[in-house]
Amino acid sequence: MERGEIADLRVREAEDLKALLGACTSVRLRAVIEAELRAALASLIELAADLTEVRRLLAEARRQNSRALLERDAVRLEAALAGAPPLLAAAFAEGLATPTPIAAGLPDFCWRSPHKQPLPVPIVSAGEPAEVMQRLKAGEPFVLTGSRLCMSAVGKWTPAYLCAHFGETALCTVFESADANFRYWDGRKNRGNYHFPDEAHTRKELLTMRDFYAKTRRALTNPAAPRAYLQTGLVEGVGAQLVRDFARFDWAWAKSLSATLGWGALSSNVVFVGMAGHTTPAHFDEQQNLLAQLCGRKRLLLWRPADWPCLYPFPLFHPCDRQTSLDLRAVDLAKFPKFADAQPLEAVLQPGDVLFLPQYWWHHVENLDDDCVSVNFWYVDNAQRDVQLPISEKANVALRRNVERMMAEKAGTERAHAVFAELALGKPEAELAEDTRSVLDYARVLLRNVFTSEEVIERWLVELTVGRFT
Fold it and tell me: Which of 71, 362, 371, 376 could lock 303 by a disulfide, CB 3.0 to 4.6 Å apart?
C-alpha cells in the first residue's frame, strides 16, 4: 500500500474514532478509543513529516525522473492529508495528540515555545481550487502548494541571480543588525516621545543589489560582521530579465482575489533576501498578505488576532507600533503572564509554497537557510470602518487601535503615555489624576456603542493597558 493510500486510510480512521469518542459515555470504552485515536494521529503526524521531507527533496531534485516520482508522492500525500489539519488541531486541543515534530529538526537559533507547542498550519494543494477559495474566504492562514503564482522565480531568484539582473543603479532598502534580530521601527511614529535609544535601532540604508550581495558574502566568513536583510520593493531601474520574470507571475489570479474576496486592491510587492538565523520578531500587518517562498526555507510562528493581549504590543504612538514588546527568547511571565495563554501555529515554507497571512494575524519569521528569498503580495486594508456586531477578532484589533488613538488624542499625545501608564497600574479610580479619569470615562462612552456589558468593557480596558505602558 502506498503512503498516499495509508494517509487516506488513517484520516478516515481518525475521523471515525473521533466521532465514536464524542458519542461514547463509557469510561472504559473511552479509554480504549482514545488509545486507538492516539495511534492513528501519531501515524498522521509521521506522514505529515514525510510530506515535508518529500517537498524538501523535490525542491532539490535535478533529474526529471526523480522529480516526477517525488511530485507523484507529494500530490498523493497532500490530497490524502488535506483533511488532517482540523482533525489534528482538535486533537491537540484535547490533549489526544503529540505536537508536530517540526521543531525536532530545526536549527538551534529557532524559537521554541516553552508553554504551548505549535499547531500545524493547514496545507492545501493548488489542485483543489474550491478548497483554496473556501479557506481564503474563511480568513484563516494556510500554506498553498503547487501554486503557479511565482513559478517563474522559484529556485531562480537566488541572491546571485538578483545581483546579476537587478540593475546597476537601482537602490534597495536594506536593514542592518548586529545580532540577526531585525525589529521594524519608524521614528515618525514616535508621537508619544517614547525613549528609543540608538542601540534599539535596526539600521536602514539604501544599497545596490551588488553591494548588498557583497555584504552578505562577508558575513558568511566573518561572524563579527553586521548582518544585512534586504526588504525592498521592485524599484525603478530593475533589469529587463527580472521584469520579464515578474511579468510571468500569475497576476490574473492574484488580482482576482480583490474582487472575489472583497479585499482592497493589490498594492505592493516586497522582495525579502536574508541569511540563516535572520529573524523578524512577532508583529501584525493591517493588509491581507500572500507570502511566496522562492529559495531556501522560512519558518513562521503565527498567533490569532484574539491573542493580541497575550503578545503585549508596543503602544500605538511608539516607533515599534504593531510589534510585540516581548523578547520571545526570554519572556518574564511574572510581568507578562498572559503570554503563556497564546497558542502558536507553525509553518515551514519550502520553495514554491505560498502562505496566506490574513490581516491582523501575528507572525514571527525565521530564515532557516542562507540565501533565503521570498516575495509577498500586499492588499490594501479592507477593514470595515463601521463596527459589525458581534465583533470579530480582527475587528476587535482595529477597535483597540482606534480607541487607543482616540484616548491618546483626548489626553494630548504629549501626556498620553503618562495617562496610559497610570491606568496600567490598576489603581483605584478615586486615586487617578483628574485627566486620567476623564480619558477613562471617555473610553467607556466609546465602548458602550459596541459592548453592552460593563464587565466586558472594564476587562477590555485592562487588556488595552496592562503590560504595555511602563
Answer: 362
CA 222 to chain centre: 31
- Look at residues 354, 379, 404 and tell me which one is the last residue of a structural domain: 379
Q: Is residue 244 part of a domain?
A: yes
Q: Could you tell me the residue range of the domain that residue 434 belongs to?
A: 393-465
43 and 177, same domain (yes or no):
no
Predicted pLDDT at 39: 67
Please state, in angstroms and rounded to a whole number, the distance separating the CA atoms of residues 364 and 282: 4
Distance separating alpha carbons of residues 311 and 342, to the nearest angstrom: 8
Question: In this structure, are residues 274 and 368 in contact, taking their beta carbons and an 8 Å threshold?
Answer: no
**Cβ(198)–Cβ(332) below 8 Å:** no
Are 183 and 322 a contacting pair, CB within 8 Å? no
Residue (of 270, 280, 273, 294) closest to 229 by Cα position: 273
Within 8 A by CB and 6+ apart from 63, the residues are: none
- In terms of C-beta density within 10 A (0-12 exposed, 13-18 middle, 19 or more buried), how is residue 55 classed? buried
> What is the average pLDDT across 305-312?
96
N- to C-terminal Cα separation, the chain: 60
72-128 pLDDT, tens digit per residue, is: 777 776 676 666 656 655 554 454 444 444 555 789 899 998 888 899 999 999 999
Most confident of 104-118, 150-164, 372-386: 150-164
Residues 194 and 339 in one domain: yes
The answer to whether 157 and 246 have CB atoms below 8 angstroms apart is no
**pLDDT bucket at 9, cuts 50 / 70 / 90:** confident
Domain count along the chain? 3
Contacts with 38 (C-beta within 8 Å, 6 or more apart), sequence order = 96, 97
For residue 450, is it within any domain?
Answer: yes
